[in-house]
Structures are given as C-alpha cells and as structure tokens.
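Protocol step 4 of 6: structure prediction from sequence.
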Amino acid sequence: MKPPPQARRGERGLVHAGDVGLFKNLLEQAAAAKTVPLSPATAKMVEAAVEIHQDAPELEDLAYLARELVQCTLPHSDPGQVPFWTRTNGNITLSIVSGVDPQGPRLVGYPYGSIPRLLIFWITTEALRTASRILHLGPSYASFLRALGLDPNTGGGKRSDAKRVREQTQRLFAASISFIQSVKTPTAEGERRLNMLVAEASELWWNPKQPDQATLWESWVELGQKFFDTITAAPVPVDVRALRALKRSPLALDLYAWATYKALSVARRGKPQFVPWRGLMAQFGADYSDPKDFKKKAQETLRKIQAVYPGLKLGDATGGLLVLPTSRPAVGVKPPRSSLA
C-alpha cells in the first residue's frame, strides 16, 4: 500500500492534491478529543478517502454512468406537477416527461435528488455486467437497498431510504427521456432528437416497512431498447466507494461524474481547461439564484470530491477554475466490450 500523498491547499480554497491527510487528521483528532466527535457523514468520507488513496479499485468497486447523463443531469429538487422538465447544457437539452399516477388523476412525478442518480449508476453497471435489458432487482428489497449503498434499517417513514427509493424508482421507471441537440453548419441549421422510455415494463414488489421480507414474486425492470443502447454505448467509469461517500448530495454526485469525464478529455489534450463558475452553475446549479452562493457550495463540494478522487487536479483562475492536464479519470479502466452484446 502506498501512503496517502501530502495535502496542499490552493490560494482560493481548492485542493491541488489529495486532501486525505486533512481528513485523516480530523479523524485522529476526534478520536483523541472525545468532546468533538465527527458526524457520521464526515467519518464515512474520511474512511473512503483513506481507502481510495491506499487501494486501487477492484472489480466490485466499479460503476458506470452514461456520458449523456454526465453532460445533462436530473433535477436536484422536485419540479412538482409540471407538464415536462428540461435542462440545457450548451447545444444539448435533456427533457423529461412524467408518467401518470394510476391513483391520480395526477403525474407520478419526476425523479430528483441523489437517489435516482444512484439508481442510474446501478442500472448502467448492471446492464453492462449482464448485457441484458431485463434487470432483476435482488431477492429482497433490503438487498437492493444495500446494492445502492443505502440502509434498509431506517424504517418505513416518509424520509426513510426504503420509502424514498420506492418512490424515486417508480418515478424513474415511468419517465420518458429525450436528448435534443441543436446542430449548426456553415450552410444549415438542424436538430437531432432521441426519444426513449427508461423502462418498457417493470414489476416492483417492495414493502418499505418490511424490506427484509421475501416476496412471492421477484421485482424486475425491462429497460427501453434505446435507453439501454444509450447508457451502454460509452459509459464513464467511476469508483463505487466515492459514490457511497458522496451519496447524500446530488450536486456532489453530479460534479464527481463530471470531473472524471472532464479529467479524461483534458488529459488527452495535454493542456488545462478553464471552466467558468457561471457555466458550471448553468449546468449543475439550477437551484441556485445567486452565482456567489453556487460558487461557495461548488468549492466546498469539490474539496470533498478531491478527497475521494486523488486523480483530480484543479487550479484557480479568475471567474472559474482550471482542470489541469495532470488529472486522471477516477477509474482508469473501460467497460469490457464483450459485455456489450
């Protein structure tokens, strides 16, 4: 095992090397001074940072996300009962239409927050592993929750992991997604559009109040063909250990996936890329009205990400940040092509 690298801090708050030393010191100080305990979330972040710095990911530590969903992401908060929802990044627009609630008359609602992001990481990884559109969601609800890195023992209340996962899964499987790309050439303007169902069919036999209970029928989903083709075509590999450390923040999950995708492209070009805060806010910060508030939150989130992503090297720049060419993807592997039958 290699010892974790020394931490060095940038002039304006970004970490230019792995910050695991800082997190490890916090853990040791909290253990010595029992009057200042770390929060469970911070303790998990520390443990993940130390493990990731010391040990390369094994096969079970790998997860994947579709490149398109790195560029345009799901809502962070609930859009409510709107007829459709969109997010635009450059010339690409993600549009989502909700399914209908059979208990209605109303919409099922839109997948939002960290849970549907964890679901899509799991779906993409499982689709690659099995090379199948039909995915089995575990022998019990509890086993599926654990596969997402969540806790089946938080109860059956409204804010429990079990309750929220069932609701967000229903929303995701009922959704129709479109990617719309505006195209301009010297002689013409055009549009490319890909419309797809997330799921063509599904069955969920889950009881949030009794997640460990075995059911007579197994829960499963059959992904839409176009959705399956899209998520398995050129996925971005990430580290499951980092996902689980960042799992409570949709912004952290978005920026982590974006960072490893961006690190790969910058390393290939061999020169730094400037990313303005306003551009990053347009892509990921739709819930923020003040650019200063988004910048502060993004800097704080990127520091946490760098603790569990030692290959990410960032620099400071007026009005934004630099992704440095010494950066490396979070996971230096590609999905096996043989799995994409």
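Step 5 (inspection) to follow. The radius of gyration is 20 Å.
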